[in-house]
Automatic annotation (TrEMBL), chain A:
Residues 14-143 form the DUF1468 domain. InterPro entries: DUF1468 (IPR009936). Keywords: Membrane, Transmembrane, Transmembrane helix. This is Tripartite tricarboxylate transporter TctB family protein. The chain crosses the membrane at residues 7-26, 38-58, 79-112, 118-137. It holds the Pfam family TctB.
Automatic annotation (TrEMBL), chain B:
The chain crosses the membrane at residues 12-36, 48-69, 81-99, 111-133, 139-160, 167-185, 255-273, 321-345, 357-382, 394-425, 432-449, 464-486. PANTHER family: TRICARBOXYLIC TRANSPORT PROTEIN (PTHR35342). Pfam families: TctA. Coiled coil: none annotated. Residues 22-440 form the DUF112 domain. The keyword Transmembrane applies. The keyword Lipid biosynthesis does not apply. It comes from Billgrantia gudaonensis. This is Putative tricarboxylic transport membrane protein. Keywords: Membrane, Transmembrane, Transmembrane helix. It comes from the Bacteria.
Length: 151, 502
């Protein structure tokens, strides 16, 4: 990341942490302003907000407010499809079923990452997806939603 | 301190028949498999196999459960090293240097280091337990909520300041983690930060969050890589290198001993246990090392520190269980259930009246250590093959295991949803240099920190002078300040000295 290119990501995370802390503090105060409820949350929230403020001041002083301090080889956008696929998998578990969703997720991931040996792709997705779903369904005491296998 | 007559009776209990030993090997294997599978906890495996102990006598049941515990404590280090996924929270620090070692193609050595450190840790822990069980139980009784809070704060600050140049980011992540850890019902039954979601009333499920922050986010980062270890030559599993790891581990005796001592004493504190001890030991080792910057980049001392501490914690938590009847964590909680199933109540009376049984459990663990070496050696080559699997196969497989495991922990979609949310948080944190371990540990300790502080407040009636009456709290607080500023202070003093003498 060059110094010329602006990166709002780091600052956004800093702000997100501050917003979360403020929201959580407000929510805790709304629930009860008793000492027992705020004994840890209030001082800790104030410390977090103070650290965020200090970090912003230090960065402004250094002139690095919109610059990332860490060098990262992998740009975020290259990983986004993987994150999206994983999100789709988790969201689909309850509707598609753990067994079929897992098979589809593994197969889609392999295609996304360039696997073109179709028999291997199909064989692995089916064997792993159904195998793991079956194993967990047998091991866990809770019902798992399945489309083909028995939950 | 040692009751010799009870020693003799314990030997008779263990060696009069072969039956107590029948369960040890299966126990270690179960522990290894569950520990090494991301998402399957040691406590979960013990709970699953608990009903089987109904058909065993008490000693046999304890041998079986402690064998699972011993196997699991090493097993959880395996995915930490090979995939950067700590099998349990007790192996978090193992991943700090174990995984970089694996990425450098030194996975064989890292696994060897972990095995020997674990084995020596368990041995040391039970040896200390054998000699000290009575004084240790007395000491545990002295620890009040004020000390617990101080220990948590100390641990938190140490972990947050692990990355020297970005202390503020580390502290921020750690403290926000503590706040997240307090979401849900507090001690008074008031729910905070739940956004009206009933699933969050018991708080954010920490283990799924940990899986997301550590495992999934790391896997996202590696999504565009071919293999965990890029060099083909380095991907080989070599027994000779595993043995090199053995030698490497014993070449750091002080790291082992320090880890062992931290493990046994922190492990004895109920609720804190191995989750904190491995981190404390790691941070202390890094702090005292001549080259602290080499930690986190594949320094075997980091693996030794973590594995020796988490393994000795087993003995520490057993001390609390046996002496006070208080479980130190999930695994000992299951053991407590086994106590109840056999109509046995832990406590000072149990130790006095059934010293032979206590000693038998301890001696059996000495033997388990040697069995762990053999079984571990058989398992490592099998498990180390993971580095040969292309990332495009490994990533979706591990993500699936994490999702399924998280579902197993919560019993509903809260687990998988938590993995998803925290995987994205962890991925962004890693990308922008915020400390992921600090946030995770904060979440693990948040509720406990609040409870300890509240109890201290209730005992003291809000009078801050109460802290001054607690010498142990003061000592821990001084250690906290020293660990934050001690190094900088020492540097400044040494810089001034030559000037003064000039």
């Amino acid at each position: 990341m060059s110094a010329k290119k602006r990166d709002y990501g780091d600052l956004s995370i800093l702000m997100a942490l501050a917003v979360f802390t403020l929201w959580y503090l407000m929510d805790a105060i709304r629930v009860s302003s008793s000492v027992q409820n705020l004994l840890l949350i209030l001082p800790l929230s104030l410390v977090v907000l103070a650290i965020v403020a200090l970090e912003v001041v230090l960065r402004v002083k250094r002139g690095t407010l919109l610059q990332r301090l860490e060098e990262e080889a992998e740009p975020l956008h290259r990983t986004l499809p993987v994150v999206g696929l994983f999100a789709a998998y988790v969201i689909s578990l309850e509707t598609v079923g753990f067994d079929v969703a897992t098979v589809l997720f593994v197969a889609a991931f392999l295609v996304l990452k360039g696997e073109r040996k179709w028999p291997l792709l199909a064989g692995y997705s089916l064997a792993f997806g159904f195998g793991v779903a079956f194993f967990f369904a047998q091991m866990l005491p809770y019902p798992m939603h399945m489309l083909i296998l028995q939950g | 301190m040692i009751d010799l007559a009870a020693v003799e009776q314990a030997m008779a209990l263990l060696f009069s028949s072969f039956s107590p030993w029948m369960v040890v090997v299966p126990g270690i294997v179960i522990g290894l498999v569950f520990g090494a599978t991301p998402g399957l906890q040691i406590s979960m495996s013990m709970a699953i196999f608990l009903p089987m102990t109904l058909y065993m006598d008490f000693v046999q049941a304890m041998l079986f459960l402690t064998a699972i515990f011993t196997g699991g404590s090493f097993g959880s280090g395996i995915p930490a090293i090979l995939m950067n996924i700590p099998g349990t929270s007790s192996a978090i620090a193992t991943a700090f240097d174990g995984y970089p070692m694996a990425r450098q193609g030194r996975h064989n050595q890292a696994l060897g280091v972990a095995l020997v450190s674990s084995v020596l840790g368990v041995l040391m822990g039970y040896l200390i337990l054998f000699v000290m069980i009575q004084p240790l139980s007395f000491m545990v009784l002295k620890l009040g909520p004020a000390e617990m809070f101080a220990v948590i704060l100390w641990g938190m600050t140490l972990i947050a300041s692990l990355r020297g140049e970005q202390v503020l980011k580390g502290l921020m992540a750690g403290f926000v983690g503590l706040l997240v850890g307090t979401i849900g019902f507090n001690e008074l039954g008031m729910a905070r930060g739940t956004m009206g979601q009933a699933y969050l009333l018991d708080g954010v499920p920490v283990i799924p969050a940990m899986m997301g922050m550590f495992a999934a986010s790391e896997l996202f980062k590696l999504a565009n890589k071919g293999f965990i270890v890029e060099s083909e030559a380095a991907r080989k599993v070599k027994i000779s290198e595993i043995f090199q790891g053995f030698k490497m581990a014993v070449s750091y005796p002080w790291v082992l001993i320090r880890g062992g001592l931290i493990g046994v004493f922190v492990g004895a504190v109920p609720g804190v246990g191995s989750s904190v001890s491995n981190l404390l030991s790691y941070v202390e080792t890094q702090r005292r090392d001549e080259d602290p910057d080499s930690f986190g980049k594949g320094n075997p001392k980091g693996v030794v520190a973590s594995e020796s501490a988490n393994s000795t914690s087993e003995a520490g938590s057993m001390a609390t269980l046996l002496a006070l009847g208080i479980p130190g964590g999930g695994a000992t909680a299951v053991m407590l259930a086994a106590f109840a199933m056999h109509n046995i109540t832990g406590g000072p009376q149990f130790i006095r009246q059934q010293t032979d049984v206590v000693y038998a459990i301890i001696f059996a663990n000495f033997a388990q250590v040697f069995l762990l070496v053999v079984i571990g050696l058989l398992f490592i080559p099998l498990l180390a093959n993971i580095v040969k699997v292309p990332m495009r196969y490994l990533i979706p497989s591990v993500l699936v295991l994490a999702v399924m495991g998280s579902f197993g922990l919560t019993g509903n979609m809260t687990g998988p949803a938590t993995v998803l949310v925290f995987s994205v948080v962890g991925w962004l944190f890693r990308h922008y240099g915020y400390s992921v371990p600090a946030m995770v540990i904060g979440m693990l300790l948040g509720a406990m920190a609040e409870k300890s502080l509240l109890h201290s407040y209730q005992i003291s009636g809000g009078d801050i002078a109460y802290v001054l009456e607690r010498p142990m709290t003061l000592v821990i607080l001084v250690l906290l300040v020293l660990s934050l500023f001690g190094q900088r202070l020492a540097k400044r003093i040494t810089r001034r000295q030559p000037r003064a003498s000039a």
